[in-house]
Amino acid sequence: MKTDFRDIKQYIRRRIVAGDWAPGQLVPNEVDLAARFECARATVNRAMRELAEEGLVERRRKAGTRVRSTPLHRPRFEIPFVRKEVEALGSVYGYRLIDRAAGPAPDWLKAQFGLETDIRALHLVCLHLADSAPYQIEDRWISLAALPDAEDNDFSEIGPNEWLISVVPFSDAEISFSAIAADAEAAGRLGCAAGDALFLTERSTWWNGQAITYVRLISRPGHKVTARY
Amino acid sequence: MKTDFRDIKQYIRRRIVAGDWAPGQLVPNEVDLAARFECARATVNRAMRELAEEGLVERRRKAGTRVRSTPLHRPRFEIPFVRKEVEALGSVYGYRLIDRAAGPAPDWLKAQFGLETDIRALHLVCLHLADSAPYQIEDRWISLAALPDAEDNDFSEIGPNEWLISVVPFSDAEISFSAIAADAEAAGRLGCAAGDALFLTERSTWWNGQAITYVRLISRPGHKVTARY
DNA sequence: AAGTGGTCTAGACCACATT
DNA sequence: ATGTGGTCTAGACCACTTA
Questions:
Q1: At residue B68, does pLDDT exceed 70?
Q2: Domain B82-219 CATH assignment equals 3.10.129.10
Q3: Interface probe, candidates B9, B77, B137, B172, chain A, greatest A C-beta count within 10 A
Q4: I want to staple B105 with a disulfide (CB 3.0 to 4.6 A). Which of A141, B121, B176, B229 is the partner?
Q5: What does pTM read for this prediction?
Q6: Where in chain B is the domain with CATH 3.40.1410.10?
Q7: Is residue A81 over pLDDT 90?
Q8: What CATH code would you report for A5-67?
Q9: DSSP B92
Q10: From the candidates B45, B51, B177, B205, which should be mutated to test the interface with A, based on the most A CB atoms within 10 A?
């Protein structure tokens, strides 16, 4: 049985976790490890490269590989789209379009998109339901300069999120999480009290450097996102 | 100049993004791509493996490599510890211990830790400051069963977070984000109004399968975490 | 100048899932 | 049964960075 790069990863991880190799300390170089494991250097390289990717070690040419002095915590959150999220809860998903209007993009949106020029935008407000109860408000702006087709769609049956994925499946994005107080409107739509603390997800999306859409997702009270690492 | 695996990644990414290879569709296999790029299969493999890791394609033995039908969004959030976070804002970091008490762990904490047995725990409440203004409340429980040394530390000068990192630099963790309303106590400590929407970060940490600590980080109003992908 | 990681090659064998 | 990805090997050359 040949050496598996996972064996090497595990060995190194163990030595680090056990404290044998302290933070900041040098880890043996690839040639030595390859000799000790009687394997090719490429195998050690794969192991070390992945450990670096995971944030456990830091590598620099000539300087060697060191145990990270302060661990890097970079949790990965899975962001499913709403329908999947609701279905994963075992609930029946529902969708309702609340408002739809096309017009010139407001200044704050142009700023958000990093644009100087005037463009038209489509503004959509939708409600996502779980077992007929409000689950999330989707307040979305779509650049009609980037996606003129959006204007032909009335979004009465299918949410803009799913439509967008079918049109521009791959894109660059910036996502952020924060907490906001429910205003009267949001409270009415989510069936909670005004002032309630709500979880807000914001996402801006680009495609080939062009701004596509900006969305505010306001989740029902108690929403939580979780990741392990 | 030899073929760089990045060239292959870029080529494939372009074809996918341009829509030449639609979601769900098969991507050429490694042997064919290696032939087309006149490079070793290992090079193509590296490129494809990374694209799969990024969530752009899906690979299965014998079935081949396909463009993901629905894109995977797994943003990575950098979670620095508070002092770095404050300093990155250009502010002066400050720390204050508010409360410290050792005693039997409450039932909810044992549940959180997945324990049946009674243990003792250290409960700490601290305030992190940015330019002398409240920045974040740290409400932490440390298992004295796992880390008896914690009881010897008074945490008056150094925050438990930094101490923990120095003691158990590597661990498994679960992190979650949510929104809560400020209770009277939190409002007083953060200098905001009761009922204000606050961003809550919770983290449970294990080491070698043993529960170490559970912490609630309540950030000042307006806190936001961001990631790009 | 020298040591380290970064990458490529050409070949091989294997594991697995589909056919 | 067969085609695909998964991995290892042994060797090579290169890029970077520190000494």
A1: yes
A2: no
A3: B77
A4: B121
A5: 0.91
A6: 82-219
A7: no
A8: 1.10.10.10
A9: P
A10: B177
